[in-house]
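Posted in: Structural Biology > Protein-Ligand Complexes

Title: Requesting predicted complex, nicotinamide-adenine-dinucleotide in pocket

I'd be grateful if someone could produce the 3D structure tokens for the following input. Sequence and ligand are given below.
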Amino acid sequence: MSYNLLKGKKGIIFGALDENSIAWKVAERAHEEGATFTLSNTQTALRFGQTNELAEKTGSEIIPADATNVDDLFNVFETSMKVLGGKVDFVLHSIGMSLNVRKKRVYNDLDYNYLMKTLDISAISFHKMLQVAYKLDAINEWGSVIALSYIAAQRTLYGYNDMADAKALLESIARSFGYIYGREKKVRVNTISQSPTKTTAGSGVKGFDGLMDFTERMSPLGNADALECANYCVVMFSDLTKKVTMQNLYHDGGFSSMGMSLRAMSMYNKSLEIAKEKGDMD
Ligand SMILES: NC(=O)c1ccc[n+]([C@@H]2O[C@H](COP(=O)([O-])OP(=O)(O)OC[C@H]3O[C@@H](n4cnc5c(N)ncnc54)[C@H](O)[C@@H]3O)[C@@H](O)[C@H]2O)c1
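-- Reply #1 --
Done. Output follows.
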């Protein structure tokens, strides 16, 4: 269902890899809501993913970029303004990757070159994006920039590894740049802290299926899926949220406010009984 919330708005969407990607759903929903936008991802992702299909479906141009490369980002913003016929109104940073997670290096045995890459790709790229946009004055007044985060920025969650540090930095950048961008150009900058979601990046996290089941049981409204996240992004890109900035916005069915729920406790008790019977209490 379309509400025309983004009619006439222009944007840039980073990070749509395949139909499971959160950015993919955002692109589909933004298109339905009347926006025009460009899509960006790495050359590798464009070769192996399905971004071309999305571009065709939404009538969007693809501009390749490694989001850690400032020259690439200048090109994305400059080309987008040319293609779309002016400054943009919204930007989505939907980018995350940890080589430590991929190579199964645990948090007390990190490879520091990988850690630097994790931080650069998953957090500093957001600063680079904002700085490039700011220097080019590429975002209209009351424009909206969103990056996707995760509650591991605030709480320790088994298996999330160095991505937790990246998300903490990402959220801090949203606050620090959000102040300057708001003060100088009336542009809002926020992060949305999303439930665990089955995507390529999400599924890389250790124990992901168990985590998704746990958060589903813990959240009074259940996990938020990718489409629901896209709907929230659309609202945040729309004019209905003009005074929301420098926030980390939880979109997680209530998980972030929970300590223990009835459903999670009953499952825990069941497993506890089985473990007791087996004498396996570790
Ligand atoms: N899936 C989850 O459980 C979950 C939960 C909370 C937040 N998030 C966040 O949502 C965002 C999107 O992830 P997703 O779950 O849709 O997975 P995804 O794998 O579909 O998207 C990640 C994207 O990052 C891109 N990327 C990686 N390195 C890049 C680089 N150097 N330059 C540009 N792009 C690069 C990938 O090509 C891919 O398109 C990430 O920031 C992720 O941390 C995901």
